[in-house]
Amino acid sequence: MTFSTDASRSAFDATFVKPMRAMLNPVSADSSKVLSTNIAALWVETRSELEVLEGADRHQPSEGRTLEEDLQDAVVEVAHQLWAEFQPKYPGGGKVYNMISTGVKTEYDKKLRVKQAGAAADRAAAAAFAHPPGLPKPAPQVQPLTPGAQDGALATGTLVQTLLARANGSPLAEGVPSDGENPQPGNAVGAEVQRAAAVPPALQRAALRLANPGPPDLRVERLGSELALHMLQEKWTFTDWAEAQGLNGAALREAKTHARSLELGCLEFGVGFLTSRPAEVQLRRMLSLALASATGNFRLGTQLEELPGEGMLAALSDKIVKDLSERLKLELKLEQMAKEGKVR
């Protein structure tokens, strides 16, 4: 199945194909249930990534078809290709059967219904909170994003920022009249209706380089959704997970700080935050701390992090390291065979 735009093809490759390859070669799951759950999570995440594409980047299904149908065809096609390529086996040696059209599809449907129900509940709660009874609806404020802003950035005056401003009691946005032009009901003694504050011009200028050209993209393949899923399957919250890893001292405090940030990110931006690039960096660091604590090897833990390692191979990509490793193994094997007189 071919996607109609380069952006949609890239999103599918980055969000589904590459993580699937890593998931099947080698297989880390120890049961079909766990593997189905992980693949279904990738499928749901990929759908979300394709849905947020806009304009010329958005995939255009052929007449009579939908994005969901095209995505399912692509997922099934890729699964068949990868199973034929890897012939995956569980860590114990058992054969992994291709369940993409049965068990995985069933799990995907469940996860998609849960996500859609959660999104509908969030919209309903936001709509109810946006206009409390007895207060006038604020005038709509549509402001463009700052040029060069990163994907997903929120403009001043959006619904999310308005809700947060009311909850946190931040100042009114610049340019929003609060006097005779927009009188408030009552005798002006009660609490003032809060609106999101504009970003100070000085901060806009100071952060210009962060928005355009922006920092380098992720240096690793995305595993954030898989890591978050495993953590939340073990414990109710990220903080609980961090506290259960046997960490202490500075490592425990750092892990709980990352956990706190992830939980607040979910609250403010929705569960989709866990699939974002900032969450990827934090989740990898949390797992690195836990692995270092469990093994006593901090160098091993850093191999999971998004930041480059400190070893001599840190400047090389994972693919180059893997290719070099395979070549070195082959050369050593040939040398051993030559010593034994098996080759000349």
N-to-C span: 49 Å
Classify the helix fraction into a percent range. 55-70%
Principal-axis shape:
globular
Query: Which stretches are poorly predicted, pLDDT < 50 over at least 5 residues?
Result: 142-157, 172-196
Give the amount of beta strand, in percent: under 5%
- Rg, rounded, reads 25 Å
Write up what this structure looks like.
With 344 residues, the chain is an all-alpha fold. The chain has helices spanning 6-24, 32-51, 67-86, 103-130, 159-168, 201-206, 208-211, 224-234, 238-243, 249-269, 277-295, 298-302, 318-339. Among the domains are: 6-121, no CATH class; 224-302; 313-344. The chain is built from 13 helices and no strands. The longest helix has 28 residues, at 103-130. The radius of gyration is 25 Å and the shape is globular. The chain starts with 5 loop residues before the first helix and ends in a 5-residue tail after the last helix.
What's a concise summary of this model?
The protein is an all-alpha fold and 344 residues long. The chain has helices spanning 6-24, 32-51, 67-86, 103-130, 159-168, 201-206, 208-211, 224-234, 238-243, 249-269, 277-295, 298-302, 318-339.
